[in-house]
Structure formats: C-alpha cells, structure tokens
Amino acid sequence: MTIRSLAIAAALVALTATSGLAATVQLNVAGGQLLGARNVDVNGTFYDVEFVDGTCVALFNGCTSASDFDFSTRTLAIAAATSLMNTVFLDGPLGDFDSDPALTAGIEPSTLDFGFISVPYEFLPGSVSAGTISFWNEPGDTDNLSTTSRIKLTTDTSNIDEIVFARFTPSQITAVPLPASGLLLFAGLAGLGLVQARRKTDEAR
C-alpha cells in the first residue's frame, strides 16, 4: 500500500469516526423495573422515552390538540410503538421485559398478565378522548399492535394496572470524538500523501 493510499484510508477513518453517532438503545432500569430508554429510533430521529402513569390531560399539555403530543400523526405514532416493541421490550441481561409485563413501570401484576403501552397522537374533536396507538406485552406471545385504541382525557392510568403511557422527548446524541492520537496520525499521513503526490507530478513534467 502506497503512502497516498494510507492517507486516503486514514481520511476515511477520520470522517467515519467524527460523523458517527452514539445511537445504541440504552435501557433505563432501576430496582429491576424498566422506567424507559434512551436513543429509541423513530424513522431516523432518536428519542428518549419514559413510561409514566397519570391522565392524558396532565401528561400531554392539556391533551386537546394534535400538537400537544410527541407524535401528531398516526403514522409516526405507529412507528414509535413499533420501535418500542422491536428495540426496548426484549428479554435480556437487564430483565425479561418482553416475557414479564409487570417489570415495566406503571404496569402492575394482575390476573390478566399483560400490559398496554399507549402512544397518544390525536385529540378527537367532539369527544372526551384521544386516539392512541397501543401495543400489549403478553408473556409467551408476539407483541400485538392496536391502531384503533383510544383513551379518555381524564382517565388516570395510575388506577389501571395494565395501562401506561409512553412519553417521548428528543435525544441529545453527540458525535463520537476522534482521539487526539488519531487526529495526529491522520494529519501526518495526509501530509505524506500530499508530498508523494507532488513528487509524482514534478517527475511527470
């Protein structure tokens, strides 16, 4: 491999390292309970999510217009719920969050043995309810998505064992910095590559 090739390779490594994003989903677990997660990918945008109990009105800025919600379209709400199913509600070393719904904050053990996680996306005019995209976690079964669910604005999920809201906020993802030694190596190799290229140009004249 020539010096010029090495310089090009070093440049590619540097560009990759400086443009990479720390976007691995990180679960927020305390005392064995799944409280939420960081860096959940929803159609290419990363969010932090927390599972919270309460009323739609209290948790989503009044819950009286689509702009009050984290996702204001049905398509985005479906994408958010699907991402939770595929990347957060999985069995792993931190807990069996797919097999045991009661390990999720806001979901209490019950005879029904499943939990609904709801993502509201629209206020229904002329109604006292909001449209939600929900999926239910059920032991030993594939998670199922419900695209027609709704919940009353004043219903307090703190009093319902099986329902919890998923509340999303944009993630603060930063670029992965290239170590100082890597920058020095890149600069040195790039300089050598330029010298070699100029030498070949002079020889061709």
Automatic annotation (TrEMBL):
Superkingdom to which the source organism belongs: Bacteria
This protein's UniProt keywords: Membrane, Signal, Transmembrane, Transmembrane helix
Secretion signal, residue range per the UniProt entry: 1-22
Membrane-spanning intervals of the chain: 176-195
InterPro entries: VPLPA-CTERM
Entry protein name: VPLPA-CTERM protein sorting domain protein
Species in which this protein is naturally found: Roseibium album
